[in-house]
Amino acid sequence: MARPRVHDLDRLLDAAEHLVVERGAQGVTVRSLAAAAGVPNGTIYHAFGSLGALLARVWLRAASEFLDLQTELADRAGDPAEAVAAAADAPAAFADRRPDAARLLITVKKEHLLGPQVPEDLAGDLLALDKRLVTLLVRLAERLWDRRDAPAVEVLTTCVVDLPTALFRRAFTAGEPIPEDSRVRLAAAVHAILLLPPPRKD
Could you tell me which residue ranges the HTH tetR-type domain spans (predicted)? Predict the structure, then answer.
């Protein structure tokens, strides 16, 4: 069997991404995915080796594109507090570009997509993504407070991860646009949190 073309692989990943957000990871089968993408079942195995590896690739693609955008938005902001607010707003900005990918990252637990069938090279790529997020948070902490310790990073995790998830989850779950009011309130909450410096480690 000839190797699938790049656009075929993209169509497979797009179809899998959409199925996951509509049905959940457990609702995606080789047969349903092949039908949605319009490819033979064998294409999935030939291109990715297993359904588990394909779903891991779906997560990796979405998370990588999201982190690219989040980093770009943060770096574009001149003021450190505005950089944190921009990073926090990144899920909404990403949803404007890639609605299914944004819904995937907010509403589907990574553990539901990843399993024992994930190849070692993909596992390494996923670990590198986690490190990229930590690196961004550390850079933001250095810009704000000239600190890179755990308490400082924890405050920024609240701003960049916890608050957007809480404020945007309902809209993402319903497949609706993020209300502008939620984005404004998120920015206000982020700026309020940043008024207090992080605690010092004892």
Answer: 6-66
